[in-house]
Amino acid sequence: MRIGITLGDPAGVGPEIVAKSLGRFREDHLVLIGAEDSLSRASEASSLKNSLGRNVSVVDVGPARVSFGAVQRRAGVIALRSIKKGVEMALKGEVDALVTAPINKEAIVLAGSKHIDHTTMLGALAGAREVSTVFETKKLRVYFMTKHVSLVEACKEVKEEKVYEAILVADRCLQLLGSKRRKVAVAALNPHGGEGGLLGNEEKEEIQPAIERAKGKADVMGPYPADSVFYRGSRGEFDIVVALYHDQGHIAAKMHSFARTVSMNLGLPFLRTSVDHGTAFDIAGKGIADETSMVEAIAKAKEYGLVYKERYRLIYGAKD
Q: What is the H or E stretch that residue 21 is in?
């Protein structure tokens, strides 16, 4: 399988965790996309020798020439070039899936990006109709109805139509991943699921009606209190849990397994997976970054990438 891997912000730990992960995937063709000099520096800092095997090639978009551990426009430029090249290769079929190392929001904005995160950027570059974010860690999958908005704004978006659409998209995400069983659970917004309106009316007025409306199109249940639904999902009771806002799902997934949480973007013409941590500027260049999340991200790309492409063609009628 051909897997594209962007190196992320060259001032962060991206190149290091990629370099440390390569030896785990010698049966696949890995295409590293980024500043080659940042990869060399990371390998030296980690005392890695001959980390580039015969199955690894590098698409150099550098040089980076940046300092470790600081926000820099040049680092943002390299990160943007890497993402654009990765998307281009994925759309041309030169790689079967794309794995991304972390970027810094400030740096890419300094470099002129109109987008502050991978998800919106990838969607724009690929011309995607809809791009969804799903976390996977062990048996727990989480779909996010809202992401990078304030908590106040996220609560305002808990409306029947929005929840209904989220349920259908969560079910479609399971289809894209080739899941044979597609049980969807919806998290409640208020403590104890609102206690029949004593602690909030959103469950009665918005969430429950959306669930009832969606039952003819998806195997959906809930709303379940957020303090238990993710635990139940982690035990395999559900195949995906709809989180209503960013931290509701992030906290659950990361507490379950911080190092093994993988972020996936679904709805693109190709699968994109990513580590679920940042650039870690405080330890960049020290050779001590933990590559576990990157290993998991590459493994998920390998596990789902080809199935995803086939399911995408069937669902969206896309052509190679």
A: helix 14-21
